[in-house]
From TrEMBL:
<dbReference type="InterPro" id="IPR000873">
    <property type="entry name" value="AMP-dep_synth/lig_dom"/>
</dbReference>
<dbReference type="GO" id="GO:0016874">
    <property type="term" value="F:ligase activity"/>
</dbReference>
<dbReference type="Pfam" id="PF00501">
    <property type="entry name" value="AMP-binding"/>
</dbReference>
<dbReference type="InterPro" id="IPR045851">
    <property type="entry name" value="AMP-bd_C_sf"/>
</dbReference>
<keyword id="KW-0436">Ligase</keyword>
<protein>
    <submittedName>
        <fullName>Phenylacetate--CoA ligase</fullName>
    </submittedName>
</protein>
<dbReference type="InterPro" id="IPR042099">
    <property type="entry name" value="ANL_N_sf"/>
</dbReference>
<feature type="domain" description="AMP-dependent synthetase/ligase">
    <location>
        <begin position="74"/>
        <end position="285"/>
    </location>
</feature>
Length: 426
């Protein structure tokens, strides 16, 4: 619904409210989980007449979805076509299902997402993510591009050689990729003397990882890609639970919402709305889906929003990149920061080739941060680093000089498969 983005803010709100009401009644009729929740909280959904009423409805947590997974299913089992799971980054993966209506909704969602980016009929798009492995998004990209009438190259995940070979063969204009995989591809090109100065690729549609800061400028990851490869980067934000993508338009100032498919709230710790530009947790209600709709689901993703019209002419709400997970928030001397804020500063600091960040809680139950850096860094450089922390974060973590080997050991504990730059010891 491209026109929806360009409707007035008031019209968008009205349409969204109608969808929200419809979804509430649907859940009350079909969802064992929400029927139980409404009964326990003595909620009569027909009496929810405004957003003020709505925001008193209980929050759905990830634990709810994990522990009562089957109770969220609103349709007969045999109606489910596609069975998928969440990635389970912070816990056990959760099962979700899609019926015919949901698959059509997913197609529309991705179609709109590609349209926001500017992908047109006849453009060739290379999908470097898996289309199977119980992954919802891969299938969504394929179906959205089919609907759009684009050409599709399904290379799947990994295999840099296959990726570059496909780019040469099929001349895609766009590439859908996890940004850190693009870094790997670029490294592979360098190591194998692949000339990437004249590729057909004009833009990458980045998924799974943030590429921008809160002020919309590229973060370290984004910069690393564009320094080596002259292409445009589009940020997207999505999750399996949401079954909806938030996507950047051509002006790259936040990820546009699709208000007919998802209702968003950005809340503080007390469940109150934060103001535009303030960091809060994203709480979502999925709209127009049938198998497992979620009502006021707390995503754990901390971000900011803006609801002023975008310079692209669209009036839909925009979300920033995710600043961190709610559980990872650090309250340092009264200021809320995320590991990512510290990692960004350290990664950009010249001459620092390794570090590790540790979060602890002191006797007074206050968060403490120690940044361990190699002892060959001069005290003068440490002073500069302290100044940068002060100006960027308003607070300074403790900086400790230790042997480089100790840092390496802390970063790669045996029980972990991936290096750990942030160690949460709270
Ligand atoms: Zn825009």
């Amino acid at each position: 619904m491209s026109n929806l983005h360009r409707s007035s803010i008031e019209e968008i709100k009205q349409l969204q409210w109608l969808q929200l009401k419809k979804q509430l009644i649907y859940l009350d009729l079909h969802s064992p989980f929400y029927q139980d929740k409404f009964r326990k909280s003595v909620t009569d959904v027909t009496k929810i007449l405004s957003y003020d009423d709505f925001r008193h409805l209980p929050i759905t947590t990830k634990e709810d979805l994990q522990e009562h997974n089957e109770d969220f299913i609103c349709v007969p089992r045999e109606e489910i076509i596609d069975h998928v799971t969440t990635s389970g980054t912070l816990g056990i993966p959760v099962s979700l299902g899609l019926n015919e209506a949901d698959l059509q909704r997913l197609t529309r969602n991705e179609l709109e997402s590609f349209k926001l980016i500017g992908v047109e009929k006849g453009d060739v798009v290379q999908i470097t993510t898996t289309l199977d492995r119980r992954f919802m998004a891969g299938l969504a990209y394929f179906m959205g591009l089919r609907e759009l009438g684009a050409g599709i190259v399904r290379t799947g995940s990994g295999l840099p050689q296959l990726q570059w070979d496909s780019i040469e063969r099929f001349r895609p204009k766009y590439i859908v990729a996890v940004p850190s995989f693009l870094v790997k591809m670029l490294q592979y090109a360098k190591d194998n003397n692949i000339d990437i100065s004249e590729t057909s690729v004009k833009a990458a549609i980045c998924i799974g990882e943030p590429i921008r800061e809160l002020d919309y400028s590229l973060n370290t990851l984004g910069k690393r890609i564009t320094e080596d490869w002259n292409i445009d980067l589009f940020s997207t934000y999505a999750s399996t639970e949401m079954a909806t993508a938030f996507t950047e338009c051509e002006v790259h100032m936040g990820n546009h919402s699709q208000p007919d498919l998802i209702f968003t709230e950005i809340l503080d710790d007390d469940g109150r709305h934060v103001k535009p530009g303030e960091i809060g947790e994203l709480v979502i209600t999925t709209l127009q889906n049938e198998t497992m709709p979620l009502l006021r689901f707390a995503t754990g993703d901390m971000l900011t929003f803006t609801d002023s019209p975008c310079t692209c002419g669209r009036n839909t709400q925009r979300l920033s990149s995710v600043m961190g997970r709610k559980q990872q928030m650090i309250k340092l001397k009264g200021t809320s920061i995320y590991p990512q804020n510290i990692i960004e500063i350290l990664t950009n600091f010249k001459g620092l080739d390794t570090f590790v960040i540790e979060a602890r809680r002191n006797d007074l139950e206050m968060d403490m941060i120690t940044v361990k850096v190699p002892d060959n860094v001069s005290l003068e450089r440490i002073d500069t680093l302290t100044e940068i922390f002060k100006s960027r974060l308003q607070v300074t973590p403790d900086i400790e000089l230790v042997k480089k080997e100790e840092i390496e050991l802390l970063r790669s504990p045996e029980e972990k498969r991936k290096p750990e730059v942030f160690r949460d010891l709270r």
